[in-house]
Give the backbone structure.
Amino acid sequence: MTYRSFASDNNAGVHPDILQAIIAANDGHVVGYGDDRYTESAITTFKRHFGDDTEVYFVFNGTAANVLSLASITRSYNAVICSANSHIHWDECGAPERFAGVKLLTCQTPDGKLTVERVKQHMHGFGDVHHIQPKVISITQSTELGTLYSAEEVRALAGYAHAHNMLLHMDGARICNAAVALGLPFRAFTRDAGVDVLSFGGTKNGLLGGEAVVVFSAPSPNPSPTGRGELSFLRKQSMQLASKMRFISAQFDALLSGDLWQRNAANANAMARRLAEGVKDSLPIAYPVQSNAVFAVVSKSTLPALLQHTFFYTWSEHDAEHDVVRWMCSWDTTERDVDEFVAHVTQVIGNL
């Protein structure tokens, strides 16, 4: 029996079409480090989604994409404003501080989303030589709590950032899930909404491994010692320049050249809705289910029994007797997977 967990969409396998793309790219010799037809084709595909002057830099993982994005638009005396729930703050082991050399200024976000009002607490000290200088607002789409920014909400944050000579970065680890849920093309809530630099995720949506830094426009004035076009040097220096880049590029081309990205994300989102609907009469749902994540409030005493069916993560403490747990659905989650888990949850709760 095939085992599928609800712990993380990172736990899912690789989509067969992606594996076939890797096999097809494994044909003969090509020039390394991205000077190959597979990378050229993948970049062209990205440009069809985001615009002809888009720059694309493929990397190995999401932390690298975020760190390189931030490093390319900041200096060592700059700060990045982000949610306290954000991956860059909570789950990257200090990599932005260590490698990008920036300070993270966090905001409490009950729904995982930054707003202009929440950001304002950190908007001071500009020009003061003793004070860290805020330079970037970083948001995650979909958020770490499974919620979504509308295009209008992104536009409001971008406008506020740009009005203060700042930039907007988006961590798009689950950007495909967000696009499907919003019913919008990628650029409608990224480039067209004012995002300056995007971390585009592929691994969570069926890739073997691969992420991308996507740069939309030359910031003016240029806030960075690198500038547009020079991120390639940062990528090499950061040990993220793949010698056999064709195998990352081919995956993205397979994902984005057709509708595979939509089909994968749509299934994950639909399974999350099915899961939430199935357990809502047994457990409180902590946050709106807007993408492929379900957060439920469970009694601490029931956790061992629930974990007998499938491993999942305890996300936070709700109160002295309850925790918030996270259940993630993936591109390959099936209705049977969901229904069996719902039946297990219902039985465990019913036996209390």
Remarks:
- DSSP finds 13 helices and ten strands in the chain.
- Residues 260-279 form the longest helix (20 residues).
- The chain has a mean pLDDT of 94.
- The radius of gyration is 21 Å.
